[in-house]
Amino acid sequence: MHLFWRKGFAATSISDLTAAMGIGSPSLYAAFGSKEALYAEALRHYRAQFEGRVWGNFAAASTARGAVEALLMDTASALTAVCAPEAPRGCMVTLSAVGGEGQAELGACVRAARALGFETVVERLDRAAAAGELGAAVDIPALARFVMTVQGGMSLQARDGASRAELEAVARLAMAGWDARTGG
């Protein structure tokens, strides 16, 4: 997972993988079938390991504003302080270029993972609108795309070395924009 996360699919060789896993290529192919299948498994493992750190407080928040703020603040934390010190910074799913590397099936898998975040935010905002928490004039898909764009940009900034404090400042600015746009 860390190799794919750090180097991407195309730049990670079978030799890199077998060295990291301490196995020969026949064992890798016997266990996973292909490099593509191993990458898909690495993505599943990544999501299982880190999804709760980013989305747990979002799901538990009582308001849409609280959910979005939790998402962005928890993103700042997760992107800069992952469990293992050798882990790359930034989000493996967000930063994945698979699909543009000639791997259409894996590209679809990564796009679906990214789309799930957008859909989760849209669903939460729809519930907020139905409860009267957001005004009828709020463009929910645009607001959800804004949130996901900020989160994705935070991932790029983390990869390039931004600190947790710097990313939290971005989250606070995004929430000021939320307040100005939604009256929240």
From TrEMBL:
Molecular function GO labels: DNA binding
Protein name: Transcriptional regulator AcrR family
Keyword DNA-binding: yes
Top-level taxon: Bacteria
Residues of the DNA-binding region: 13-32
Source species of the chain: Methylorubrum populi
Domain HTH tetR-type: 1-50
A Pfam family hit: TetR_N
Keyword line: DNA-binding, Transcription, Transcription regulation
Entry coiled-coil feature ranges: none
InterPro entries linked: DNA-bd_HTH_TetR-type_CS, Homeodomain-like_sf, HTH_TetR, Tet_transcr_reg_TetR-rel_C_sf
